[in-house]
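FW: tagging you since you asked about this chain on Friday. Here's the raw sequence from the shared folder, copied in full. Didn't touch anything.
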Amino acid sequence: MKTIAISQPRYLPACNYIERILLCDVFVMLDNVQNQRRAFEHRNKIRTPDGEKWLSIPINRKGSKSDTIKDLIILQDQEWEKKHFKSFELFYKQTPYYNEVINLLYNFYFSKKRETLNEVVKDMIGVLCRYFSIKPNIVWASNYEWNSKNDDLLIDITKYFGGDAYISGPNGREYIDEKKFYDSNIKLLYHEYNHPIYKQVWGEFYKYMTIWDMMFYYGKNTIDKIKSGKLIKSNYKKNRGDEI
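HL: got it, structure written out here
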């Protein structure tokens, strides 16, 4: 079985996102679709004494060619890199792996200036992969020509990369037409994530922060700690009265 996972890019990916990358044979960054302003492509949360705090990259909506993720340009007058780094620096000083992880973030934020969201995500994923010594097969949808949309696009991408199984997030149950995948002879798997719980310095545990939150506590061991999800088969055949 060759598994394909497809998801929009993430600037500060959470633990479940990285585990999904590890679970599949090919991970496709779906950057040829529209960015939703309140989505996670350009933002995520960290833990603070007051709860959770959003770190968002300011997007130049007027200057971008379109709202497609691959076309998004960053506002350059906001000093967002400095602000985001300062947040990590301030709120994670008491963590066990602070020195190691904050140096990674410093090099990421200040090594170069990036103009597009895609540049940021590519470099962010690169930093994480090198740190954890992993080599996932990641491709970008915008490097290819696609004429389909929605479920048909997911099926076409899966087939193009030789996949016979597609890994979806759990929310896929709300919008995926399972019959289309069944009729296309593609196994549909849902990634159910059981978020690991660990002690955060600010008290009550908050899950689904960026993976960097966990890295401050576990360093390179984070990559093993995040492996707590499982793949659940679609029950479409069962619903039709067939055997699985």
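FW: DSSP finds nine helices and eight strands in the chain.
HL: agreed, and The first strand starts at residue 3 and ends at 7.
FW: great, closing this out.
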